């Protein structure tokens, strides 16, 4: 296999030579090095690298400034950050890089150990495999293609269960969009939601997801299960003053109750006017819908909005859940958020739960609900019935 081209940026003489030796001894890398951020930037402008490993603390141009500048490059390497500083500082720097669109494959505390280099190579292998997989996918993301997929049933609502951390029972579900493509198989939302937004089809998608959720509820109800469903709304859609009315009418036309639907305001956008945010949120609640702040801790959400908006539910973003067992600061933040939410009368749901240990921690801090792959991925409405049947009380023996 062709070795990865890596650029090491380190100003300390001993660390510089030590890192060169580590990467060269591994055998999976072709290594260049730079002593400063400016010299690294010069090399990045002239050559293409698969990976840049940079110290955070350097004179003239530190590591954070360096990756801010490389966002302008056409070919940007994956990033690994090194430091003797606190883990919290490393994580913060990594989040800064990720939010600039860079691929962060490592946050490494010094001194760097050989196993950290092996892990970097494994993550680069995963990125290369992913890139090769995506290269084989050819989607024609035109407006008419998306509209046709929405009208012919290819774009569907699948459902991920939310389980109570007290009883272990399924108590609701979230509708998540999937594209069942005739030749490419089931595509995740990351493959097409950008185009949905680009062609101003988000409003139509929300309507479709609501309609399919109402049909799923009717199906489940015919089997004896009454399951509330959450539907995502990009927050900027609240700029449409009649959004609440249109959603309410869809529910009435289906013969359903607004109380069975919760709308989750997504963190991917905000309204043009803050008044539209509060007006839209109030009107949805006045019509009887549940209202959740989605992805709390990730984007535009704030404690002021939390205490000022008539939410019925708070959904904690998975970025706060992952690592909560290793990082005391995350654990304390989660406990504080759960406590405040309960004082405000909100149901608290943790998203993206992946391990039994995370479930146990969330149970200890009295989080109400959890969803994530450890419980179940999103599945079709018909398959969801099987989960409900497994979850329901077994008949008594006679």
Automatic annotation (TrEMBL):
It comes from Pseudomonas helleri. PROSITE patterns: EAL, RESPONSE_REGULATORY. One of its GO terms (molecular function) is cyclic-guanylate-specific phosphodiesterase activity. Residues 5-125 form the Response regulatory domain. Keywords: Phosphoprotein. This is EAL domain-containing protein. CDD domains: EAL, REC. It holds the Pfam family Response_reg. Gene3D superfamilies: 3.40.50.2300, EAL domain.
């Amino acid at each position: 296999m062709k070795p990865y081209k890596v650029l090491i940026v380190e100003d300390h003489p001993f660390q510089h030579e030590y890192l060169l030796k580590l990467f060269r001894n591994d055998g999976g890398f072709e290594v260049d090095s730079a002593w400063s951020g400016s010299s690294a930037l010069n090399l990045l402008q002239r050559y293409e690298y698969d990976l840049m490993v940079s110290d955070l603390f350097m004179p003239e141009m530190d590591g954070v400034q360096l990756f801010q500048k490389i966002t302008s490059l056409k070919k940007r390497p994956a990033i690994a950050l090194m430091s003797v500083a606190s883990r919290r500082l490393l994580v913060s720097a990594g989040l800064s890089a990720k939010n600039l669109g860079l691929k962060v494959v490592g946050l490494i505390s010094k001194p760097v150990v050989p196993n950290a280099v092996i892990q970097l190579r494994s993550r680069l292998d995963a990125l290369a495999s992913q890139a090769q997989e995506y290269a084989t996918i050819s989607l024609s993301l035109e407006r008419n293609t998306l509209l046709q997929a929405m009208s012919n049933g290819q774009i569907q609502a699948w459902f991920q269960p939310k389980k109570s951390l007290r009883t272990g029972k399924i108590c609701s579900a979230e509708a998540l969009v999937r594209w069942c493509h005739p030749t490419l198989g089931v595509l995740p939302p990351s493959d097409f939601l950008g185009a949905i937004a680009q062609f101003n089809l988000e409003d139509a998608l929300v309507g479709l997801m609501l309609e399919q959720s109402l049909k799923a509820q009717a199906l489940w109800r015919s089997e004896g299960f009454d399951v509330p469903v959450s539907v995502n709304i990009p927050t900027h859609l609240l700029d449409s003053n009649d959004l609440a009315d249109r959603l309410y009418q869809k529910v009435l036309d289906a013969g359903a109750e607004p109380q069975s639907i919760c709308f989750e305001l997504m963190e991917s956008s905000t309204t043009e006017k803050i008044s539209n945010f509060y007006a839209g949120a109030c009107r949805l609640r006045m019509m009887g819908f549940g209202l959740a702040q989605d992805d709390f801790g990730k984007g535009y959400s704030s404690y002021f909005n939390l205490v000022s908006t008539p939410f019925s539910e708070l959904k904690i973003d998975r970025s706060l859940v992952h690592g909560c067992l290793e990082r005391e600061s995350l654990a304390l933040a989660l406990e504080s958020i759960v406590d405040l939410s309960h004082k405000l009368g909100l149901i608290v749901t943790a998203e993206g739960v992946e391990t039994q240990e995370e479930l146990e921690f969330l149970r200890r801090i009295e989080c109400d609900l959890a969803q994530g792959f450890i419980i179940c991925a999103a599945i079709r409405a018909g398959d969801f019935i099987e989960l409900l049947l497994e979850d329901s009380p077994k008949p008594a023996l006679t």
